[in-house]
Amino acid sequence: MPATSEVPEDIIISIITELSIDRQTLEACASVARPFRVPAQRHLYSDIALDLGSHPSNIDRVKQLNFLFTENPQLCTYVRSLSLRFIPDDAQVPYGVFLELSQLRKLELNFRPNQLNMVRWKDLPRRLQTEFYHLMQSPHLRQLTLVWINGFPVTHLPHNGLHQLIIEDAYLFKDASASIPIDSLRILRFDCTLLRTDFVETCQTIVDLLPGCLEHFALLVNNAFLCPEFHKLDLTALRHLRSLQLGYMSPLHSAVHRLKEFVERSLPNHSLKRMTIIRTTMSFFGGKLRDVDRLDLNAIDKVLANAPRLNRVHISLSVPPALDSLLVEEIIIPQIPLLAKRGGVSIYAKDQQLLTFPWRQDMA
């Protein structure tokens, strides 16, 4: 058997890649021979998730990482994804340990605490604010996720290079200087579960910075009382918007006039190619939908099929995964006759397409 130094590099990389999800074996590879060390370390340190709470195991992991990065700064260049869960008054903050992550591509700052009160940005230690800001300005950062933070300054968002922004129950603060457009962002997603009607204001604040670049926008509202609020959004300035997702958990039929107002007034005129409606909850018994879900689909059918700005837009309906293609044909399609006749409609469960209606020839 040849010595490890004689094994071709591409073979070593192939072996390490096959072991990428087996952390224990990767650690062994990193210590067994020099040719295996760097390829194994690239995988070991590419994706880091840290809980900054006060549990001894969390404290030990932060200290160990700090020591490793200090002793071998090259490891910092292998980090591509960093997820930090921060609990105020409980966190062991690793000041300085993340400032050299020059190749960082993906960053998640999760402030979700074990209590109901949202974390306020201004209550974080000033030094921690500064470190988070520097992380967000990493030159290769492409995806940023903010979770459970109130008053996050819009001016801290990267304005160059960021490709995707995900905001989960986070509310942004915009001051007079926060008017510089973000030219690189292509994908924007908002998830809202808290009972706060100002989530639309946060959405609009970001949307207003993206008129010339945003291509994909998703708004997922998982609070029944907030579902009708999205009609207040104005997306008309998004001249490159190609796909729009609206997700909600409660029926919209009682607020159908708001849905109608949204698709008639708030959508861009020509750029949109696909609109997806996501129902996160839907119940059926004995092969029949609940009346409330049936009425909801009837309302969606009438509004979307007749909306002038959706004439050439493919409509996708995403239903709960409990539905298969047979059930979709039996209980969903009868509730959307206008869309089925119009064509350009697909039914999905998660990412699986269950049924599709091609465009009518006079509509294609």
UniProtKB/TrEMBL annotation:
Name of the featured protein: F-box domain-containing protein
Lineage of producing organism: Eukaryota, Fungi, Dikarya, Basidiomycota, Agaricomycotina
